[in-house]
Design a protein that fits this description.
The complex is a heterodimer of chains A (289) and B (370). With 289 residues, chain A is mainly alpha-helical. Chain A has eleven helices and two strands; from the N terminus they run ααααββααααααα. Chain A has one domain: Orthogonal Bundle (ABC transporter involved in vitamin B12 uptake, BtuC). The longest helix of chain A has 30 residues. Chain A is globular. Chain B is globular, with a radius of gyration of 22 Å. The relative contact order of chain B is 0.16. The chains are: A mainly alpha (289), B mainly alpha (370).
Chain lengths: 289, 370
């Protein structure tokens, strides 16, 4: 029964990891780079919420209405006026610049908000749960996060598959020159992809801030979990990403049954094992969406 | 490091190939004297300054190792802290078994390189961002792994034993010499590597990896050699860190911040030269000292500068300084002196290049490959 509960918790935790992975997967799929500051952007969203909640009197559970649009706009501007410049100098420069951004962001948060960990207070939602049996609980919050992850992944999928802009983003991802020849300007479309990625990662950050407490140094490990979910799921496959997140989530909760430290180690080991055996992931897919 | 000359093309008339020029010969002399002065410094200098220099040497070794990886073979590792931690923990473990911590340093170097062998098997299947993240994950796994050992102090770490036998002054001196020696060896190792046949491959990989592969250069093998070298160098530095800090704490030695230091120093100094990381580490260190009262702001400022330089000044401070002058203190290239009717350049640049004085009838045109 303990294992069954761990399995259920792990699957729900997978939603959180998938939410982190969604934006990474999108940016990698479109621009073939990894934003190493991804986790820190999520943490920045938590701190923005911590500032905004007392200022606007919006409750924590609804604060995403303000935070996510801010990050969508911020992501677009960031891509157009900063990240694009590093992209123009090549993938290595982009890696280094986003790594620098990660360190700078983390230390700015450290200076402004101290190293103390904080969380978003959502009252009884964090403790209430559906009781399946005496051993298995499904907390409302975990269900909400899993639901949010599925909605976000579906929204990104539908955007890429069905809308005109989404199709243009995919065209640019497949063949930038050819797409440009028929009038799809890649800079704007990269901006759109980055905006979406920043929006989803802000959502992931808020979910994380409700789920557990967050400190400025929390970011990188969720970048790694998110990336691991992308790789395990297979690049470019959004639903594979959700499955990858769930594999990691289950690894975390099962590992935690041994001891909490092993809980943070086991998902990494699973990731390395997948890299060693199937570097293209468990559910590889050729192109985006 | 003296000028070694030899003819490459036997048939061509008077085609002279040299490996170094006059500034390099000077630099070698100054370098040896500088090392001597640095080695004697603990006898005359204030203790605080010596401690600062140990930290500078740590920074120089780390930056040099990261530059060898990223600058020459394009391996952007974000996980070199794995080897720093491995080196530090090897010193800790051996000291717990009664070893002299200083005697444990060579073992730490070998241990780091040996650990890098299976790690390279795993991460070399990946490239670019995948490689970067995989190295980072390995470092995290390394930290979580050593934290599981209660005998090593678990998550809080443990003191390095056997250091209290020295007096405080003597310990600082030995630590200083160790740090200086490691730094000198690390820089020398990269220099020797680049001058070897393998160095030719590395330079080719740096300039154009696909091109190097297409002419049959052993790209993978040379990458692996550099990865193992960087692991050994970082492990040596980790050992220095363990001894200079007197204890080993997993969240310190396995901190990604070390990699941030390496990357920032190299980006500021300049990628893919031997001099760049040295210059960058010194600039980084001076700024770190100057801004020491402003907590984490030094890292924010240095990070911002490094990002700006990565985008707008890719060759770094050293690259910008030497863009006009072909100045190399570590001669790793070949200089081909081609006889021809071309103008020989002004006297100063000829002097810098170490060209022979212009014979009126036979001016030399020169091409440089560094």
């Amino acid at each position: 029964m303990t294992y069954l509960n761990a399995l259920a918790q792990g699957i729900m935790l997978g939603g959180l990891f998938a939410l982190f992975a969604c934006g990474l997967s999108l940016i990698f799929g479109v621009m073939e780079v990894i934003n190493l500051a991804h986790g820190d952007v999520a943490v920045a969203a938590v701190y923005l919420a911590i500032v905004l909640i007392p200022a606007t009197h919006v409750s924590a559970i609804w604060i995403f209405v303000l935070v996510v649009p801010t990050f969508v706009v911020g992501g677009y501007l960031m891509q157009r006026y900063f990240l694009q410049r590093s992209l123009d100098s090549g993938p290595v420069t982009t890696l280094l610049v986003t790594f620098g951004l990660s360190v700078v962001l983390e230390n700015v948060l450290l200076e402004v908000f101290t190293a103390n960990s904080q969380s978003l207070q959502i009252g009884s939602l964090v403790s209430d749960s559906i009781t399946i049996s005496s051993q298995i609980f499904l907390p409302y919050l975990s269900l909400i996060i899993l639901g949010a992850a599925i909605v976000a992944l579906a929204a990104v999928h539908l955007f890429l598959a069905r809308t005109r802009t989404g199709r243009m983003v995919r065209a640019v991802a497949d063949d930038r020159e050819a797409a440009q020849l028929v009038g799809a300007g890649y800079r704007h479309l990269f901006g759109v992809a980055a905006a979406l990625a920043f929006g989803t990662v802000a959502l992931a950050g808020l979910a994380l801030g409700m789920y557990t407490s967050v400190a400025p140094s929390t970011g990188p490990s969720y970048l790694l979990y998110g990336f691991a979910a992308v790789v395990i799921g297979g690049l470019g496959s959004l639903w594979g990403t959700l499955l990858g997140g769930m594999v990691l989530g289950v690894a975390t909760t099962l590992g935690s049954l041994v001891d909490p430290d092993f809980g943070s180690m086991l998902p990494y080991l699973v990731f390395l094992a997948v890299l060693a055996v199937r570097p293209r992931g468990l559910f590889p897919k050729k192109s985006l969406a | 490091m003296t000028a070694a000359t030899g003819a490459l093309a036997p048939a061509a008339p008077a085609l002279l190939v040299t490996r170094s020029r006059r500034p390099a010969t000077w630099a070698a002399a100054v370098g040896v004297c500088g090392l001597l002065v640095l080695a004697l410094l603990p006898f005359v200098s204030a203790i605080g300054f010596i401690t600062d220099l140990v930290n500078l040497f740590i920074l120089v070794s780390l930056a040099t190792m990261w530059n060898a990886l990223a600058g020459y073979v394009g391996l952007v590792s974000v996980g070199q802290q794995l080897y720093i931690g491995a080196g530090a923990y090897l010193v800790l473990v051996l000291s717990q078994h009664g070893w002299d911590p200083f005697a444990a340093v060579p073992v730490a170097v070998v241990g780091g390189a040996v650990l890098a062998l299976p790690a390279s098997w795993l991460v070399f299947r990946l490239s670019g961002a995948y490689f970067a993240i995989a190295t980072w994950v390995l470092a995290e796994v390394g930290m979580l792994f050593v934290e599981r050992f209660g005998s090593l102090g678990g998550g809080t770490g443990a003191p390095v034993l056997g250091l209290d036998g020295f007096g405080p002054d003597a310990l600082l001196r030995y630590t200083y010499w160790l740090a200086l020696g490691v730094t000198a060896l690390v820089v020398l190792a990269v220099f020797v590597l680049l001058r070897s046949r393998l160095g030719l491959v590395l330079t080719a990989v740096r300039d154009n990896e696909t091109g190097a592969r297409s002419v049959g250069a052993p790209v993978m093998a040379s990458k692996r050699v550099v990865y193992l070298l960087a692991a050994g160098g970082c492990a040596a530095t980790g050992a220095v860190i363990a001894i200079s800090q007197l204890d080993v704490e997993p969240s310190n030695v396995f901190n990604v911040q070390w990699t941030a230091y390496m990357i920032f120093a190299v980006l500021i100094g300049g990628l893919a030269t031997i001099e760049g990381p040295l210059v960058g580490a010194v600039i980084f260190f001076v700024l770190q000292q100057e801004l020491a009262n402003y907590n984490a702001w030094y890292l924010i400022i240095l990070g911002t500068v490094a990002m700006a330089m990565a985008i707008w000044a890719r060759r770094g401070v050293w690259g910008v300084l030497t863009a006009r002058l072909s100045l190399h203190f570590f001669p790793v290239g070949y200089h081909v002196h081609i006889p021809g009717p071309t103008a020989p350049g002004d006297r100063f640049s000829r002097f810098l290049r170490g060209d022979p004085p212009v014979p009126p009838a036979d001016p030399h045109k020169e091409e440089t490959r560094a």
